[in-house]
Amino acid sequence: LQPMPENILETSLTWTDLERNIKTALKTDAKFGESKSVIDIGDGNGLTSRCGLIYCDWIGADVSEILPSRVVIKIPSAIPLRQLNESLPQGQRMFTGGEEIWQVMEGKMREIHRIEVLTYEFFDGFNGLTVPTKYYGTTFEKEGETEGQICLKFMENSRMMNFHEKHTVEQVRQVARALGKIQACSLKKVPAAPEFHRNFFEEFAKTVTLEGYCGMYKALAVLDRSQKTIELSAKINKLLPEYYGSSLPTTIHSQMGFRRVLVNGDLRTENVLIDVDTEDLAALIDWQVTHLGVGVEDLIRISLYALTAEDRRRSVSMLVAEMYDSLVENLDGAEPPYTLETLLVLYDLLFPHCAFYFAGPCIMTIMNKANDPKLSAEDKEKRREVEIAKLLGALEDALEYDAKNKESKLARRGEIITAP
After folding, report:
1. First to last CA, the chain
2. Which residues, including other chains, have CB under 8 Å from residue 373's CB and lie 6 or more apart?
């Protein structure tokens, strides 16, 4: 047998450091046994970190101690994103350039890791939220810390939702209500950290060039060569420069005059855990791009990833209302930031921005999965059919919402900018 590497998942985090940190967090003198191990549970799903399931194999625990047999460790890293990017042909990559771009991205991964740690610290002040328990988090910045990481409770009997599955409206309704409760918390106690004020839409444009942004969409005609998709692709390519660099989802509050709420910012299916047996919502995970914004941003994203286009279209009003009702129910007397009617308008205005932000990475993911040696040809085709249908439905609707928004009363009166 080969000895286990001291470093975990090819990062600079060592077993020695991890054991020390967990022992401190759990206030135990127990140690990891020789059968300790790690499984990479982020492979192909997480793009901004290495994520491992740690089997602790505790030895020397006091009889009265109840220690977790498994924990999840997240370590910020640009390696997964780089591997996905470089799996694509030149001209269809989001990131172009040499080694320097990945040094920049490593720095950004450390920054967003800090945001996740701060988010879980904010959650510590509330009960009943649908998020995992944090054991500890480090952010590179405190004296003596050599590696940023966050250690979370392992959600037993749960699994990720998947982009290639047709999830139910009921599952997304549960997510909508969980989001409303979290948003209410951010109105009762305003998140004070300046990091929550970051404009990720604006930063995206500073990292990804217009050429790279549009390049991602060139693969659309490769994924589906039908005449309908070729025509759709041509329309989308004309519209992309209008939305490139737009930060409306994080600035619209100043134009319309309402308070912002806490937004996950990356609520795709792979960041939602569901119960294996009941398929009910178990937890919302991955809070690395948490920011203050409009709650429908999260709802649009999870709806695009989880639902068929048909289910999404017929359930829009109900899902927005469920999220809003949950927000109001959990405010404990605090004033809601907007009415339900305003939130429905915000959904319309922000849909194209969120859809384009969703579609580019999805194209990259679909292209990458086509070369996955772990999947059979049959499985690849089944997944591809579902994913492309969701993708094309999102882009078709983005065109419709764009046209609708540009004809709206707000746009005609110059009260709102639909796209720069």
Report:
1. 59
2. none
Q: Is the pLDDT of residue 145 over 50?
A: no
Name the nearest CA neighbour of 269 among 312, 294, 237, 304.
304
Exposure string of 333-357, with b = 16+ CB inside 10 Å and e = fewer, is eeebbbebeebbbbbbbbbbbbbbb
By the 10 Å C-beta count (0-12 exposed, 13-18 middle, 19+ buried), 388 is classed as middle
C-alpha distances in angstroms, 77 versus 51, 58, 130, 183, 325? 10, 28, 26, 28, 38
Mode of pairing for the β-strands spanning 261-263 and 158-160:
unpaired
Report residue 265: phi and psi, to 5°: 85, -10
Residue with tokens 């985090």: 13
Distance CA 286, CA 136 (A): 15
Average pLDDT taken over every residue of the chain: 90
Place of tokens 């988010």: 119
Say which amino acid occupies 55: Y
Tell me the per-residue pLDDT of 338-364, one tens digit each, with 9 for 90 and over.
Answer: 999 999 999 999 999 999 999 988 998
Residues in the chain: 420
* CB distance 297 to 350 below 8 Å: yes
* Contact yes or no for 30/59 (Cβ under 8 A): yes
Token pair for 71: 């924990």
Nearest to 168 by CA among 279, 70, 68: 279
- In this predicted model, what pLDDT tens digit does every residue of 258-317 receive, in sequence order? 999 999 999 999 999 999 999 999 999 999 999 999 999 999 999 999 999 999 999 999
Which among 55, 58, 76 is positioned nearest to 66, based on CA atoms? 58
* Separation between Cα atoms, residue 111 and residue 76, nearest integer Å: 9
321 touches 336 (CB < 8 A)? no
